[in-house]
Amino acid sequence: MHKLTADSGLQRNTAVAVSHFLTAAPTVARINGIATVPARIAAMVAAPYGLRNVAVPRDLGTFPTQIAWHPHQRRDPRHVWLRDLLLSLTATST
Questions:
Q1: DSSP code of 28?
Q2: Are 41 and 21 in contact (CB under 8 A)?
Q3: Residue 30 CB-density burial (10 A; 0-12 exposed, 13-18 middle, 19+ buried)
């Protein structure tokens, strides 16, 4: 059980898992469910799918993010520059 649900006495009942935040809205609309997604994603996708956008009543912390690129672009100087820039912008000092 997830710590946040355990602390509140709630139990998670997962019906569907999606691979990307943007696929959550059509899935939730189809199954009449709920999903927790980043606020900016919820603001973009709630209305088109007839969903309500409600803030989560507690801090859920952060989540890992990823970038992906086609293997053919692995050595492209522009792609290397962009990936390096993103890494420098998101790096945390320890």
A1: H
A2: yes
A3: exposed
Per-residue model confidence as pLDDT tens digits over 5-61: 566 777 778 888 888 888 999 999 999 999 988 889 999 999 999 999 998 887 777
**Identity of residue 55:** A
d(CA 54, CA 36): 10
Buried b or exposed e, range 66-91, using 16+ CB within 10 angstroms: eeeeeeeeeeeeeeeeeeeeeeeeee
**Residue 29 corresponds to which tokens in the numbers above?**
């609309």
Q: Output the pTM of the full model.
A: 0.57
Tokens of 35: 């999903």
Contact 46, 40 (CB under 8 A): no
Q: Which residue has the tokens 């691979």?
A: 19
